[in-house]
Amino acid sequence: MSMPFYVSPEQMMKDRADFARKGIARGRSVVVVQYADGIVFVSENPSQALHKVSELYDRIAFAAVGRYNEFENLRIAGVRLADMRGYAYDRRDVTGRGLANAYAQTLGTIFSSGGDKPYEVEIFVAEVGTEPSEDQIYRLTFDGQVADEHGFAVMGGSAEQVAGHLREGYRDGLGLDDAVRCAVEALGKGEEGGRKIPAHDLEVAVLDRTRSQQRKFKRLSGEQLATIVGRNGDQPPHPAGESTSPSSGAADDAGRRAEKPPVAPPPDAQDS
Q1: Cα dist. 137→39, 71, 125, 131, 167 in Å?
Q2: How far apart are CA 221 and CA 4, in angstroms?
Q3: SS3 of 166, please?
Q4: How many C-beta atoms surround the C-beta of residue 212 within 10 A?
Q5: From CA 271, how far away is CA 97, in angstroms rounded?
């Protein structure tokens, strides 16, 4: 009778972790950024049907990278858990922290089990508060570890390179347009050589605390997104960090108006 092949627990966990990391790295990065009025998610995703960013509950959103079928199962489980908890108790009892803990337990159990392969996913769970200081962003890795993020975070693909470029352009209190442009520029520069990502290849969604509806999740697409980043990703209306206030540079503006007549805004600059 042959002896069973032995693998030490340390080596087995290392092999499973390497397997999951390689699968996650093959996906495109997802960026989450806090801005003045909420939280924005930005990712390159040419598909119009398979979303990487979705709503979980009133003030809570979910984003993921990796294998679509695996993180879609996690998303559906999170929606069901949130709905059941909100129905059985109160809507205020559904929190981002509670959902993040549930995801951490599930991912940790799958990773440490000896039979099933680990999930090749990383996910964000974000909850927008009534004030910026109350915003919560949780990053969960394939093995169930939870990290509390602040300001911005990146996962999947060339995460380290994208985070490095994002760190250069990010600052507290950005407006929505500047936050989206900053994230899109970092995603483009994260790849070797750098490139410009057109608006139709982007998936952008926000948790907007200023919305009057109970549900704060909203997708940005079409003309609205093209107005922010430019249709080809090369000519945003206002570069990040440039003030668009009518009172700033009033003397310079008056001089420019005297030199040449004003130009009417393009038709696609209207809100959609």
Answers
A1: 9, 18, 6, 14, 17
A2: 56
A3: helix
A4: 5
A5: 34
Distance CA 240, CA 211 (A): 24
197 and 233 in contact (C-beta within 8 Å)? yes
Q: How far is CA 251 from CA 35, 246, 254, 257, 261, in A?
A: 30, 11, 5, 10, 16
pLDDT at 241 over 70: no
User: CB atoms < 10 A from the CB of 92, how many?
Assistant: 9
Task: Choose among 33, 39, 62: nearest CA to 125.
Answer: 62
pLDDT value of residue 240: 42
157 neighbors 29 (Cβ within 8 angstroms): yes
pTM above 0.90, yes or no: no
* Residue 175: partners with Cβ closer than 8 Å, 6 or more residues away: 35, 36
Cα 95 from chain centre: 18
Q: Which residues contact 50 (CB under 8 A, 6 or more apart)?
A: 68
- pLDDT score at 254: 41
CB 128 within 8 A of CB 59: yes
